[in-house]
Amino acid sequence: ANVTVTDLEELQELLVVNIENNKHLVTGSVRAKVLKWGEDVTEFQPPPDYILMADCIYYEESLEPLLKTLKDLTGPDTCVLCCYEQRTMGKNPEIERKYFELLQVDFELEKIPLEKHDEEYRSEDIHIVTIHRK
């Protein structure tokens, strides 16, 4: 696959180090790019086949920019895989509930059952959801 890994500007150096340390595992291409949620994504077009999200649901202030970025990045055939740890402390349950409520305005969700998760890494508090544009 041809992969673009994204994060904020201050983490680009770490992304490049991780790419370099793992290049022996790559059969396609990998590049690091800055992606700030809520900002312009035209340089990431055309829409990717897959978007992998890991642990992106944590600040209430980030929900709207994250959802805008997902809407802007996805096409009709894009599959988003969202993995997150369900947290029960503080405002986390409310933030998670709001995220999925807002997400369902433009997207359809399907939870991947725990028995389909990798046996070595599965956990009751780790969830994986597939997301597609409506």
TrEMBL record:
One of its GO terms (cellular component) is protein-containing complex. The keyword Transferase applies. Keywords: Methyltransferase, S-adenosyl-L-methionine, Transferase. InterPro entries: Methyltransf_16, SAM-dependent_MTases_sf. GO terms for biological process: methylation. The keyword S-adenosyl-L-methionine applies. Pfam families: Methyltransf_16 (PF10294). One of its GO terms (molecular function) is methyltransferase activity. PANTHER family: HEPATOCELLULAR CARCINOMA-ASSOCIATED ANTIGEN (PTHR14614), PROTEIN N-LYSINE METHYLTRANSFERASE METTL21D (PTHR14614:SF44). This is Protein-lysine methyltransferase METTL21D. It comes from Leptosomus discolor.
